[in-house]
Amino acid sequence: MTAELFALLTALSFACSNVSVKPGFRYSTPMTATFVSLLIHSIVLWAAVFLRGGIPPVATAAVVAIVVASIMQPGIRHFHYTGIHKIGTSRAVTLRNSYPFLTVIAGIIFLGEPLTLLGMLGTILVVIGIALISWRIDKNVPQFRWSYLFYPIATVLLTTLVHPLRRYAMLQSNEPLFFAALVGPVSLIAFALFYVSPACKEKLVWDRRAAWSLIGSGFFETMAVLFMLIAFSAGPVYIVSPIAATVPIWTLILGAIFLRELETFNTASVIGTICVVAGIVAISQVRS
Predict the structure, then answer these.
(1) Number of domains in the chain
(2) What is the pLDDT of residue 287?
(3) CA 240/CA 176 separation, integer angstroms
(4) Cα separation of 134 and 91, whole Å?
(5) pLDDT tens figures, 197-247
(6) How far does CA 222 lie from the centroid of its chain?
(7) Would you list the DSSP string of 174-222?
(8) In which residue ranges of the chain is pLDDT below 50?
(9) Strand, helix or coil for residue 286
(10) Backbone angles phi and psi of 251, in degrees to 5
(11) Nearest to 66 by CA among 146, 175, 152
């Protein structure tokens, strides 16, 4: 029961993070939310590492893989937060969590993996869900531009690249807490280098009215990472992954309760969210 409980806490914590960050964008920016979340991530997880006895011995190849993945982490979070800001929490989160769909497609095309009936069903559900979420989005999202879809798509693509690197690192050295903690400082360095570069057009905006929103989001995201590590250490993937994949459902529910003044919800987006979650659960069962 421990694995199921912490998998559910993972989904709820990610959902709380997604919902709590949205009000902060009235006074601050996705860039600021990215920095705050990475800072909290670093502080909390490194404290957990040292409470558990310090830095463990790990393979050099694993560290290299995590460092490469960590360089992309600021981009993932920034694109994700910008997607929430531009197209809405529920839509951005659902599109982000469709990344297993791409891993299945890549496996079929590049690795010659067979497409099972369950995998095909999951793929079809994800495609239908994405179509429903995008249906008349230009009418349902105020001041919408089609270019805004770049942000959730970029999040999905980067997430698809990062996950194999994390899996490789875990195969080399099974130290999930240390690797999760290592992501923090490396990501902050990558963030700082980008921020001082000419390519960065967005600035950090410190507004007291956004503080609790951004801090809460960063805290919940970090707790979700911790809960996920505990869940995977307590139970098999085929139990944990489907429960953790329900993040969009909980985000939709919490958003409907707490973000009614900031977002619009319609039948198509609700059904689309359910379809994507059902599809990802089906795909996770195939890949487990």
Answers:
(1) 1
(2) 59
(3) 15
(4) 8
(5) 999 999 999 999 999 999 999 999 999 999 988 888 888 877 888 888 899
(6) 11
(7) --HHHHHHHHHHHHHHHHHHHHTSTT--------GGGHHHHHHHHHHHH
(8) none
(9) helix
(10) -65, -40
(11) 175
Placement of tokens 């404290």 in the chain: 47
* CA–CA gap between residue 188 and residue 204 (Å, rounded): 14
Give the list of residues 6+ apart from residue 178 with CB closer than 8 angstroms, or none. Answer: 49, 55, 56, 58
Q: What is the 3-state secondary structure (H, E, C) of 53-88?
A: CCCCCCCHHHHHHHHHHHHHHHHHHHHHHHHHHHHC
Please name which of 42, 35, 36, 11 lies closest in space to residue 227, comparing C-alpha atoms: 11
pLDDT at 218: 97
- For residues 129 and 275, is the Cβ–Cβ distance under 8 A? yes
Cα separation, 2 vs 283, in Å, equals 23
> Contact, 238 vs 285, CB < 8 A?
yes
State which amino acid sits at residue 137. Answer: I
Exposure string over 170-195, b if 16+ CB within 10 A, otherwise e: bebbebbbbbbbbbbbbbbebbeeeb
In whole angstroms, what is the distance from residue 156 CA to residue 149 CA?
11
Query: Domain of 181?
Result: 2-287
